[in-house]
Amino acid sequence: MNVRFQVSKPVLCGNEKRYVNDAMDAGWISSNGAYLQKFEKAIADVLHVDECLVASSGTTALHLACLALGLKPGDEVVVPSLTYVASANAITYCGATPVFADCDPHTWNATAALIEQAWTPRTVGVIGVHLYGMPADIEAIADLCRRRGAWLLEDCAESLGASVNGKPTGSFGDAATFSFYGNKTISTGEGGALYVRDLERRRHAKMLRGQGMDFNRRYWHPIVGYNYRMTNIAAAIGLGQIEMLDFHLSERRRIANRYLQQLFPLAAEGLVQLPVQANDYVNTFWLFSIVLTGGGEARRGKVMRELADDFGIETRPFFVPMHRLPMYLSNHIFPSAEFLAAHGMNLPTYSGLVDREVDEICDAFASVLRKNL
Predict the structure, then answer these.
(1) Residue 36's CB: how many other CB atoms inside 10 A?
(2) If the chain, 373 residues long, is cut into consecutive pieces of 10 residues, what is the mean pLDDT of each piece?
(3) Which of 50, 82, 255, 324 is the most exposed place for a label (fewest CB within 10 A)?
(4) How far is Cα 98 from Cα 88, in angstroms, rounded to an integer?
């Protein structure tokens, strides 16, 4: 396949190269160096919080957050079934059990009501996921957790820059995590970050991140920790990226608006479902996503293959629901998650994708879709 349009790719158009060269010239290329603190401060400023911690990936950030919140064997945590596997795996790493909830068919996120339906006597917390950049029902989910005495961890891997009523996602719960993988809105190649509201729990996460070493006594390790640190080189890239966050977010809004405009006729005919537009919810459109209204995985797969083979347009299917994966297989039926997983797909979304290219993608998509009705 000759790929003309990737689903996503990092766009390094700021100070990334200059910062990386500076870190290399200074000799700080591992897990110490000035860019680590600068990047952490920049993330905290975006969230309007006092301190964030960077980590080696979004997954390790999730694991650290779960440990900091006290998750232990025997506990259960409610998490959406329609999410990336890391959300559930981080729970399992702690010896706890993920309990899955269905999602709203329009926003594609788990709601407070659906999470409450999944609640068990052993539930100690909730991982609220903001899928594909669309904020979840996070105010109501936070209220539910407060009423039931449980913690809330926001998985913001796909929603850096999203907000609800002017408040950033990641600032509603007891903790939040972010991913800076190569396909995210801003990238460090591999990398992540976490925010933990309680200062002592945050210090615990920081100690765990650095092999459990005491902050005041080198090579004294009072607890078992992990090597979950980010490198100064990665943080240098991240700082250059986050300085351009407004640009990357505006690019995604522009691209999403073009997709919405061009694909509206297909939605009006009932052939596709477009992302919902909700008042007071700012969607980052990490990846512009659509849902075919029928035909299942077979039809969606045929559409994706023809877009790739005939037009060089790369697409991605929605995530497989967690309750359908071998290690989490259950008898539960979550109709919305299963329908969306079988019919949803992500279209190319990255800074620099110009309007005529979006139009070309939409024209190709429309022709392939109509051919496969």
Answers:
(1) 23
(2) 92 98 96 97 97 98 98 98 98 98 97 98 98 97 98 98 97 98 97 98 98 96 98 98 98 98 98 92 97 97 98 98 97 96 98 98 98 92
(3) 50
(4) 6
Q: Which CATH architecture has domain 245-371?
A: Alpha-Beta Complex (3.90)
**pTM, whole model, 2 decimals?**
0.97
CB 98 within 8 A of CB 155: no
Question: Which tokens in the block code for residue 311?
Answer: 């037009």
- Predicted confidence at residue 230, as pLDDT, reads 98
DSSP class of residue 333 equals -
Q: Given strand 163-164, what is the order of strands in its sheet?
A: 167-168, 163-164, 281-282
Which pLDDT does position 196 carry in this prediction?
A: 98
- From the list 210, 72, 49, the residue with the least C-alpha distance to 151 is 72
Q: Which of 27, 49, 23 is nearest to 36 (CA)?
A: 23
The pLDDT score that the predictor gives to residue 279 is 86
Per-residue confidence (pLDDT) for residue 301, from 0 to 100: 98
Residue pair 88/79 in contact by the 8 Å Cβ criterion: yes
| Residues belonging to the chain | 373
Model pLDDT, residue 277 = 83
DSSP state of 189: B
- Taking the C-alpha atoms of 107, 299, 88 and 115 in order, what is their torsion angle to the nearest 10 degrees? 30
Give the pLDDT of residue 71: 98
User: Under a CB-based contact definition with an 8 Å cutoff, are residues 193 and 180 in contact?
Assistant: yes
CA distance 90 to 102: 19
- Per residue, what are the HEC states of 138-158? HHHHHHHHHHHCCEEEEECCC
- pLDDT given at position 15: 98
Give Cα separations from 127 to 32, 109, 341 (angstroms): 30, 12, 19
Q: Name which CATH class applies to 16-242.
A: alpha beta
DSSP 181: B
Domains of the chain: which residue ranges?
A: 16-242, 245-371
